[in-house]
Design brief:
- The structure holds 2 protein chains of 2 kinds.
- By secondary structure, chain A is of the alpha/beta class.
- Chain A has 2 domains: about 200 residues, HUPs (Rossmann fold, 3-Layer(aba) Sandwich); about 80 residues, no CATH class.
- Helices cover about 35% and strands about 15% of the residues of chain A.
- In chain A, the strands form 2 sheets. In chain A, strands 3-2-1-4-6-5 form a 6-stranded mixed β-sheet. Chain A has a 4-stranded antiparallel β-sheet with strand order 8-7-9-10, with no helix packed on it.
- In chain A, α2 links the parallel β1 and β2.
- In chain A, α1 crosses α2 and α2 packs across α7.
- The longest helix of chain A is centred in the middle third of the chain and has 20 residues.
- Chain B is an alpha/beta fold.
- Helices cover about 25% and strands about 25% of the residues of chain B.
- Chain B is built from 17 helices and 28 strands.
- In chain B, the strands form 5 sheets. In chain B, strands 7, 8, 9, 11, 12, 13, 15 and 16 form an 8-stranded antiparallel β-sheet that branches. In chain B, strands 2-3-1-4-5-6 form a 6-stranded mixed β-sheet, sandwiched between helices.
- Chain B starts with a helix and ends in a 7-residue tail after the last helix.
- Classes of the chains: A alpha/beta, B alpha/beta.
- At the A-B interface, α1, α2, α7 and α8 of A face α1, α3, α5, β2 and α6 of B.
């Protein structure tokens, strides 16, 4: 018997593949932002599916702040090689050589330089007219309102009040030279959808997502991993804590959560019963009122 | 954790089987829309605790009295400060039965375009009505736009019932008002639920405070409403999105099956080239599959090497979309710059981008009264009916039949802004919601019907017959004319007066100003029906031989002629036989692309559902078929012996 039912995940998958192909067909030089996180992993898998039996026809771009976790770097290089994808890594060298870090500059300025500015430079230098990002609408309030095809002016800025209406799945892909589009194929996925898909598709992810005993310090109620030269405050002492990371960012600004979830089904179970949404462990979302919206206006993903 | 393993396995299975419902919410300012969604998310555990904590903080900051659930939804900073939603926001909600994606759209008038945006991908719309205010101008606008965007399931949530003492009377009055409005629209599924989003009555749980209401709670309804049958699994339409050529050997075509089902081995017609081939493989990354259906993204390889590019469409040869360079459509105008007929726009339809202009703006539709208004331009948030000329053919269906091939957006070639959403309607027809009078408009109010003293009974007696119109309908080459003339001969031989109105003959005179577009076809049929009616009034039998492919047109003919005198006769032969007969060589020409809108080739034929007589003209001779009609007339008392 033929069945004509599609599960939610299969519908989301089809929608994302459609979006990825649309970008490939309509733009000159697309690139896929690859942050090494779980959403990126899903997005890359969808890109593989979209062009099977061919290879992913555009490069993956990692904007490297130099402050990612060792495990992330290892995973990134191994995985890109394994799937035969073209990986490009971009760092804002001048800012790094000036010693930019969040302890001295504060998270706002640090992000503006190492992430937003670095991203804009990377896109400009690469001549990319479309960039995929793995953001989901359920992550943060202002993301909930961003279009799937999000138009950026020549400075990479987002204007939330002047977004193009997005009707049916007829995406407007037209831009002028120097303007660009950010595309979010996972817009309609939830955190649970992402994990469930990783489970079903057996997609490899960075081991940091899984719980194990790690060397941590407790600061302001957050679990900060002891990686790199984090300046310790007086009363802080490293301790072994069973924990995992719900999202992966830069080590100074990414906290872990107490967890025993060591497998994907266990993570799913945790996601279903957890009482805090995932971005709470990302310090940068809380540094200013409407901070994500502000960053996006300036060109952040 | 191990003890929980079966629980998580069960959960994963359930989570995977639950389907997806997309719905949109609309309401006027202060109808409590965001509060309702906040309540749904909160009660259905879709809302995480820290998001709730952030809401508590914001509520204090903006000096609101109580915990304000709407702050969860109103994402952008400006909105939080003004307390209104200005854009579409998307949220997730999951229950064990179903997943939901909610598009929350703004209520105030100037943001109609966002409402249309939210509605365009929704299966269902919730329209909020403030029980104290009743049906407002904007409620009607929201209802109309949702129906225009093809939403089949509409739920009217009569909110703030707590502020009207949970009064049944208030609820019934609003329901009555809504019913008299929605009967003018074509929405197959309507539901009315009294709720209080603030207090939680009938949102997730049935409320004990309204015992007079016997229906389900809102969430219960959303979990159970059937949406699967809304999909079009009949008409295969696969717009080619991307031609995949990773190496020399492989040549695949990527795209979404927007409707219908495609199977391995299916005969395929490629549009616009009209080349025929077969499906060789249907590929996904998991491997080959034997079939794929609407909303799946696939890669297809074909038996023959044919030049196919983005924008082409794969269809079944016996089920073609309209192939049009001129279309009629309803536009929702979304740009500050007014729509100018004659200006060049870019039109994105399926995976095609074509240039085009609006050649005629017929009227604007008032979304509150549904009346038509004369106008020379369309402004932001206005809705109008237009005729458009395209620089290249598109492959389309009516929006009501196919949401994907019936929709398009218009883009300003200078600013690149998306300026309009368009929905294709049959040419010459009105959108279902704007209905003309039954007999159409009479152009001058000084026309009155005149009555004589000779009655139709007198004529029946004189001619020994109860006149009727025998309306033959069927494909070109299905035998209409042959049967009509044979029948005419036999009736005359028995002394009965009759006359054949034949398609070609009428088009040489009475209807020589008409072409073959759906609009002209409709007018052709209307005129013929009026003439047949006059002949019948004069006591004469009429036999008509017209393809008359549209059900709606034959329905109109039945209304003009009168249902007792109108006998629909279906000359039914498979298209292959008709094409083989091809008495006028028309099929050959149509296949060669020389006839733009030829029924069965590149224009649809809608078969009668219950014809008075169904003739299988591929199986019996003309003599036998004519005799069968004659016998029917005798048995039904149309021929009076004397």
């Amino acid at each position: 018997m033929e069945s004509y039912r599609l599960s939610k995940l299969k519908l989301l998958e089809a929608e994302s593949i459609y979006i990825i192909r649309e970008v490939m067909a309509a733009f000159e030089k697309p690139v896929m932002l690859y942050s090494v996180g779980k959403d990126s992993s899903v997005m890359v898998r969808l890109a593989q599916k979209a062009f099977y039996p061919g290879k992913i026809p555009f490069p993956l771009l990692h904007v490297d702040t130099g402050m990612k976790f060792r495990e992330m770097y290892e995973f990134r290089d191994r995985y890109a090689k394994e799937i035969g994808a073209e990986l490009k890594v971009y760092s804002f060298r001048e800012a790094l050589s000036r010693g930019t870090n969040p302890w001295e500059l504060g998270t706002v300025k640090c992000c503006a330089l190492l992430k937003t500015q670095a991203l804009l430079r990377a896109l400009k230098e690469g001549g990319y007219d479309a960039a995929f990002g793995g953001a989901r609408r359920d992550e943060e309030k202002s993301r909930a309102k961003e279009r799937i095809f999000s138009f950026r002016d020549e400075f990479g800025q987002w204007d939330p009040k002047n977004q193009r209406p997005e009707i049916w799945n007829l995406y407007n892909t037209l831009i002028n030279p120097n303007e660009s589009i950010r595309v979010f194929p996972l817009s309609n996925w939830s955190e649970l959808d992402v994990w469930h898909y990783i489970h079903l598709e057996k997609i490899p992810v960075v081991p940091m997502y899984f719980a194990k005993e790690r060397e941590m310090i407790v600061r302001g109620g957050c679990l900060i991993p002891l990686e790199g030269p984090i300046p310790l405050k007086e009363d802080e002492k490293p301790q072994k804590i069973m924990c995992r990371f719900r999202t992966l960012g830069c080590y100074p600004c990414t906290g872990a959560v107490l967890s025993k979830a060591a497998t994907v089904p266990e993570i799913i179970e945790e996601v279903m019963t957890v009482t805090n949404s995932e971005r709470i462990t990302r310090l940068i979302d809380h540094d200013q009122d409407s901070s994500m919206e502000k960053k996006k206006r300036e060109g952040y993903f | 954790m191990d003890a929980n393993r079966p629980a998580i396995e069960t959960f994963l299975k359930q989570n995977q089987e639950a389907d997806l419902l997309r719905f949109t919410t609309a309401g006027s300012v202060d109808d409590g829309k965001s509060t309702l969604i906040g309540r749904l998310l909160y009660e259905a555990n879709g809302l995480y605790e820290d998001q709730l904590a952030a809401v508590r903080k914001d509520s204090q900051k903006f000096k609101r009295e109580e915990l304000d659930l709407s702050l969860v939804m109103d994402g952008l900073k400006a909105e939080r400060e003004q307390g209104i939603t200005i854009d579409v926001a998307y949220r997730h909600l999951s229950t064990p039965k179903r997943h939901f994606i909610i598009a929350d759209t703004p209520g105030h008038e100037q943001y109609t375009r966002n409402m249309a945006t939210g509605a365009s991908t929704a299966d269902l719309a919730i329209i909020l009505i403030d029980a104290r205010q009743g049906v407002l101008v904007q409620s009607r606008r929201h209802t109309f736009i949702s129906s225009l965007l093809g939403i089949r399931h509409m739920v009217f949530a009569i909110n703030k019932m707590d502020l009207v003492n949970y009064s049944e009377e208030v609820f019934r009055k609003i329901q009555d008002d809504l019913e008299s409005f929605v009967e003018k629209l074509s929405v197959p599924d309507l539901t009315y639920i009294p709720i209080s989003a603030l207090m939680g009555d009938n949102v997730v749980q049935r409320s004990g405070r309204m015992p007079w209401y016997e229906g389900p709670s809102l969430l219960n309804f959303l979990e159970n409403v059937r949406i699967l049958s809304d999909r079009n699994l009949i008409d295969l339409r696969l717009p080619v999105q991307y031609a995949l050529r990773p190496d020399r050997e492989f040549r695949g075509y990527c795209g979404c099956v927007v409707s219908g089902i495609i199977r391995r081995g299916d005969p395929i017609l490629v549009l616009p080239s009209q080349r025929k081939t077969k499906v060789k493989t249907i590929l996904t990354e998991e491997g080959e599959t034997s079939y794929a259906f609407s909303s799946q993204a696939v890669t297809v390889t074909l038996e023959d090497e044919i030049d196919i590019t983005r924008g082409d469409m794969l269809v079944h040869p016996a089920n073609l979309p309209g192939i049009r360079r001129e279309i009629d459509a309803i536009l929702v105008w979304m740009d500050h710059e007014v729509m100018k007929p004659g200006k060049l726009y870019l039109i994105k339809h399926t995976t095609q981008l074509v240039k085009g202009t609006v050649t005629r703006l017929h009227f604007r539709i008032n979304p509150e009264s549904l009346s038509r208004e004369k106008t020379s331009k369309l402004k932001l948030n206005e809705i109008g009916r237009v005729t458009m000329q395209l620089y290249r053919e598109i492959f389309c269906d009516e929006y009501t039949k196919n949401r994907q091939t019936g929709s398009f957006i218009m883009i300003d070639p200078m600013t690149h802004g998306t300026v309009a959403a368009g929905m294709i309607i049959e040419r010459g027809r009105l959108p279902a919601m704007v209905k003309p009078d039954e007999k159409g408009e009479v152009k001058s109010s000084f026309i009155h019907r005149q009555e004589g003293t000779v009655s139709s009974k007198d004529r029946e007696k004189l001619l020994r017959q109860k006149p009727a119109t025998l309306w033959l309908t069927g494909l070109s080459g299905s035998g209409k004319s042959s049967i009509a003339f044979e029948l005419e001969k036999r009736l005359m031989a028995e002394g009965h007066l009759c006359y054949v109105l034949d398609g070609d003959n009428v088009r040489h005179g009475l209807n020589r100003d008409l072409g073959f577009s759906p609009g002209d076809r409709s007018e052709n049929i209307r005129r013929v029906a009026e003439v047949a009616h006059l002949f019948n009034e004069a006591g004469v039998f009429v036999i008509t031989a017209f393809i008359s492919p549209y059900r709606e047109d034959r329905e109109q003919a039945r209304n003009i002629i009168g249902k007792d005198s109108f006998l629909e006769i279906y000359t039914d032969a498979p298209i292959e036989i008709c094409e083989k007969r091809d008495p006028k060589g028309l099929y050959e020409k149509a296949r060669a692309g020389l006839i733009p809108e030829f029924t069965g080739v590149n224009a649809p034929y809608e078969a009668p559902e219950v014809p008075a007589i169904h003739l299988k003209t591929g199986e019996e001779s003309v003599d036998l078929l004519a005799e069968r009609i004659l016998r029917h007339l005798r048995e039904q008392g149309f021929l009076i012996r004397g």
